[in-house]
Specification:
Blueprint lengths: L10 H8 L3 H7 L8 H14 L5 H7 L5 E6 L5 H16 L3 E6 L4 H13 L4 E4 L6 H9 L3 E5 L9 E3 L3 H14 L5 E5 L5 H16 L6 E3 L5 H12 L7 E4 L2 H13 L10 E3 L16 E3 L2 H13 L16 E3 L12
Parallel strand pairs: 1-2, 1-3, 3-4, 4-5, 6-7, 6-8, 8-9
Antiparallel strand pairs: 10-11
Helix pairs in contact: 1-2, 1-3, 5-12, 8-9, 10-11
């Protein structure tokens, strides 16, 4: 006869079958707890027969700990976000946490609803990959004992940790890279998303150009993606005097721009136009693109996040995490012109 119960098997059911107390079952499945070998053997045999699994959620909540980490994210299909999620969820499992991914549209209301869900599920922490949640809602999360980690949030909010990359300095480096390649007519391909990280990149690039007395247009042709990059190329080359140097604030925008420039307008990369990206997604290294870009060190960023989550409490956090510097990756989409300084 199959004695396995339908639905979840309780510890009480295991205790009855094993002929022991409920607390003996609990001690058997608690690391370091005292229980005799005879009792342990009976409990394990009963648990195996019933198909019993420890309810870690209930056990954690009894100690005000769920081991759930909320991950608030938008644009999941994009290569950078997918790579970040892959690395983050795997590393959460290593430290004994469960990632609860909440897919949002990135706007303030959507992110606010996602934060409330993490509170409803008593998440131990929440990582905000997308959007700019209201400071008062973040304060509510912190007051409820949640660790809140913001990724690339430009403004300072008391309570959460903010993990950022050096967006502005890297964008300025991209500007000087293109100028050293001899580019005279520059443009920035950005996005309508308006996130703090993207805004920091495009504004810093323009500011660096203004210091040299150059006027640089920012083209925001749509959401952060390949199609918006391609549309930016159509807008820029649909009139005379198109750019000979372009900074895409993400690789996906840069790749869309590159394809449209080559296939719709017959331009050569890098002979006619040099292109620099940001992120170093897998596709940037494909031979058909060979995009010069700046790599966001995802592994290093996730390692910082895991260290924060592994600490005992927010009071122990170093709230000012030093910005992480992206790494320049040189490929074939930028080529110095003859006579370039």
């Amino acid at each position: 006869m199959d004695i396995k119960a339908k639905g979840f098997v309780s510890a009480e059911t295991v205790a009855r079958l094993a002929g022991v107390s409920r607390s003996a079952v609990s001690r058997t499945f608690t690391d370091g707890a005292s229980v005799s070998e005879a009792t342990r053997k009976k409990v394990l045999e009963a648990a195996d027969a019933l198909g019993y699994h420890v309810n870690h959620l209930a056990r954690g909540l009894s100690h005000d700990r769920s081991n759930i980490i909320g991950i608030i994210v938008s644009e999941i299909p994009t290569p950078y976000q997918a790579r970040m999620l892959d690395e983050m969820t795997r590393q959460l499992q290593v430290i004994g946490k469960v990632g609860m991914v909440i897919n949002t549209t990135g706007d303030q209301e959507s992110v606010a609803n996602a934060l409330r869900q993490t509170l409803n599920f008593r998440a131990d922490g929440v990582i905000v990959l997308s959007g700019t949640p209201d400071a008062s809602l973040i304060a509510s999360c912190v007051a409820n004992g949640q660790r809140v980690i913001l990724i690339n949030r430009s403004d300072h909010i008391e309570g959460p940790a903010n993990l950022a990359v050096e967006n502005a300095e890297t964008a300025r480096e991209a500007y000087h890279l293109l100028r050293r390649a001899g580019c005279q007519r520059l443009a920035v391909v950005s996005s309508t998303a308006g996130t703090p990280s993207l805004t920091a990149r495009d504004s810093a690039f323009v500011a660096a150009a203004q210091e040299d007395g150059l006027s640089v247009p920012i083209i925001r042709a749509g959401p952060t993606g390949y199609a918006a990059g391609a549309e930016a190329a159509r807008q820029l080359y649909g009139r005379s005097g198109g750019p000979d140097g372009v900074f895409g604030v993400t690789d996906l925008l840069a790749l869309g721009f590159m394809d449209a420039a080559r296939h719709a307008f017959g331009l050569r990369v890098p002979q006619d136009v040099s292109i620099v990206g940001f992120d170093d997604i897998e596709q940037a290294g494909w031979e058909s693109y060979a995009l010069t870009t700046f790599r966001q060190p995802v592994e290093e960023m996730v390692e910082h996040i895991m260290q924060l989550l592994s600490q005992a409490g927010p009071d122990e956090w170093a709230h000012t995490v030093p910005p992480i510097k992206p790494i320049p990756i040189w490929r074939k989409s930028v080529l110095p012109r003859p006579g370039a300084a």
